Amino acid sequence: MTDCIFCKIANGAIPSNKIFEDDDVLVFHDIHPVAPVHFLVVPKVHITSLAHADEAQQALLGKLLLVGARVARELGLADGFRTIVNTGAGGGQTVFHLHVHVLGGPGLSPRIAEVVTH
Ligand code: AMP
Ligand code: ZN
Predict the structure, then answer these.
(1) Across all residues in the chain, what is the average pLDDT?
(2) 3-class SS at 117?
(3) DSSP secondary structure string, 19-66?
(4) Which residue did the predictor score with more confidence, 67 or 2?
(5) Ligand 2 center to residue 6 CA distance, Å?
(6) What is the pLDDT of residues 6-57, one digit of tens each?
């Protein structure tokens, strides 16, 4: 997808604040963080949304979560963190390339409807 911003980040055409990369996934800090730690785990292959993923991508979907948990641990989120996958316009998705948000750090709300408490 040549006009997809996360494909462009994945292929290096536009820069990101990268945390981790391998053949399958890229992890980078969200440009507009809504928590003290807020990064995105993105598959390098273009998948429009979770609703567009298929069974052949089952292992890749699991890898997104495992990589997110490992990076969260490496960034010091020992108390825990929140993972969010917005899907479709009605689900709040604004970038139509599948990504897992990982949010954490002091002040994270215990309620999912509210990201931070202050
Ligand atoms: P969503 O609303 O779930 O589709 O989330 C898209 C996320 O991508 C938002 O949190 C944006 O702040 C983030 N974002 C958009 N463009 C960039 C970028 N160039 N680098 C890093 N994060 C981005
Ligand atoms: Zn894409």
Answers:
(1) 94
(2) coil
(3) EEE-SSEEEEE-SS-SSSEEEEEEESS----GGG--GGGHHHHHHHHH
(4) 67
(5) 5
(6) 999 999 999 999 999 999 999 999 999 999 999 999 999 999 999 999 999 9
Query: Annotated catalytic residue: which of 32, 99, 101, 118?
Result: 99
- Ligand 1 pocket, mutate which of 9, 14, 95 (most atoms under 8 A from CB): 95
Residue 2, pLDDT score = 76
Pocket of ligand 1 (CB under 6 A): 5, 16, 28, 30-32, 86, 92-95
Annotated active-site residue 99? The verdict is yes
Q: In the chain, what are the domains?
A: 5-114 (3.30.428.10)
| CA 33 to ligand 1 centroid distance, Å | 9
pTM (whole model) above 0.85: yes
